[in-house]
Amino acid sequence: MRALSLLLSQPTPNRSYKPPGAPGSELDVVQVDFYNDIASYLTTFLAANPNNINSLDDIVEWNKAHASSTGAVPGVHPCWPSGQDLLEASAATKGVEDEKYHATLAYLRRKSREEGIDSALKDPGDRAEPKQDEREEASRAKTPASATSSTARVVDESAGSLSEFDALLVPIQADGQRVVSMAAKAGYPMITLPVSPEDARTRA
Q1: Which of 9, 13, 139, 171 has its CA 20 to 30 A from that of 70?
Q2: Which residues pair with 117 in a beta bridge?
Q3: CB under 8 Å to 25, separation ≥6 — which residues?
Q4: pLDDT tens per residue, range 113-168
Q5: Higher pLDDT residue, 197 or 171?
Q6: What are the pLDDT digits (tens) for 22-58?
């Protein structure tokens, strides 16, 4: 559980937070990916694109031209007091995957995979002792009260086969849903199981 505690005891997700020793923040990667992914998505609308919106830059300018309804300008619309600051920050990257981008992406993947979820799934004796900076970061927040690892079995009825995989059982609402962000950075899938606490108390 020590490795799992380290995994889940990070500060509440702050996309612009840059951990000690990290090349950049999660937001540095997201902004670049968003710019490029939006461009790819918009190519699917070439046959019906009356406003000629082909990039995030076009979206930013269109929003400015219709600020009264889009809230692109700070202070114009109460729902978006800061305007479209995140869109503009992403547009400023021009989608360039530079050295900082690749270094930060590698850092996030290592922390969320090898030193995060993968480590939490290992037997206690196989886990590496956390480094000093990791212990300091882990001490900044509380650990969820309930978390455990398990091996799940899934039956593929169409193929008549049985598959097994390792999984972490974690209450996703705990500590700002940190585990959701961790899985996203690792590129690992998640399955949500609805549970009713009231039903559990009734059965007890």
Answers
A1: 13
A2: none
A3: 15, 16, 17, 18, 104
A4: 998 888 888 765 555 555 555 544 544 433 343 455 555 555 555 666 667 777 88
A5: 171
A6: 898 889 999 999 999 999 999 888 678 888 899 999 9
If one counts the domains in the chain, the total is 1
Q: Could you tell me which residues are beta bridge partners of residue 156?
A: 161
pTM for the model:
0.68
List the domain range (segments joined by +) for residue 156. 1-204
b vs e for 124-159, b when ≥16 Cβ sit within 10 Å of the residue's Cβ? eeebeebeeebeebbeeeebbeebebeeeeeeeeee
Cβ atoms of 5 and 60 within 8 Å: the answer is: no
Contact call for residues 122 and 3 (beta carbons, < 8 A): yes
Residue 198 CB neighbours (<10 A): 7
Q: Which residues contact 53 (CB under 8 A, 6 or more apart)?
A: 42, 45, 59, 62
Measured in whole angstroms, the distance separating CA 42 from the mean position of its chain's CA atoms is: 23
Give DSSP secondary structure letters for 59-114. HHHHHHHTHHHH--STTTSTT-TTTTHHHHHHHHHTT---HHHHHHHHHHHHHHII
